[in-house]
């Protein structure tokens, strides 16, 4: 009798393992099938996005975003294993409908950016449909980070590029005048010593540096252990950091053209400036975090509050006069 009961328990245990294995295999098969359909459906969009990265230097940093996102998911693998997998079909389908609506509208209105953002929405819908809300909240920042791989729409790019170009020209002229250089500004043209011309073209507006700095700042904000407010400040501050770095780049180029040679200045501007500015931006972000940690006093956590209460209760009460 004892042996029969042991055999039954063992058989039930093995059947439970087989069911769990079958469910896992079924889930993996469904995920792979959904991924294959999504890749097939968005293949022209992905090919166009890759060509855009290669053709336009302003958005060349976007090709690093999927690789960084894959690394961040791998980094969260232990936390994702602990998430309770409860597929949310209605949420995933809602995101799919929203993504396809944006995709169709972008196709009809010849706005490829909408189709690229729809691809990110579809990825979010896949996560929600397969894994549920707990895993979705865990990777929500990574999904938002994926949107940085999409180049800015033409309207927004035109709205941003021209002001950046003017700020780069005016800021570099101001620095040159502070350091005693003879400089004249004519629109986006800087004339040094009345004979050396430095044209701040639209390609020199700093949009490429700005997009790269935003990507680096978003990755940096994800990696550091700080409050959401500090992370948001860090990401938003990448915009003025990008503008300042571009002004410094133009200023150093002008100084090299003035006091060394025009050829060296142009070579620095086109070949070495980007490599120099990125470490500078990272150092500025470290300095910004250090400054925020010194200026912002963190609120005491629950354990610290309990320790303060226990310390007060342990103090002897003063004797009251009768």
SS summary, helix count: 13
Q: What's the story with the biggest beta sheet?
A: 3 strands, antiparallel
CA-based gyration radius: 28 Å
Judged by helices, strands and strand pairing, the structural class is mainly alpha
Shape: globular
Question: Would you mind describing this structure in some detail?
Answer:
This protein folds into two domains: 106 residues, no CATH class; 139 residues, no CATH class. A three-stranded antiparallel sheet has the order 1-2-3. Strand 1 and strand 2 form a beta hairpin. Helix 3 runs antiparallel to helix 8 and helix 11 packs antiparallel against helix 12. It is built from 13 helices and three strands, in the order αααααααααβββαααα.
In short:
By secondary structure, the protein is mainly alpha-helical. The protein is built from 13 helices and three strands. β2 (189-192) and β3 (196-199) form a beta hairpin.
Key phrases:
mainly alpha, 13 helices, globular
What is the topological layout?
Layout: H1 2-41, H2 43-55, H3 65-75, H4 77-81, H5 89-108, H6 112-131, H7 133-138, H8 140-146, H9 154-178, E1 183-186, E2 189-192, E3 196-199, H10 207-223, H11 228-259, H12 262-295, H13 302-314
Antiparallel strand pairs: 1-2, 2-3
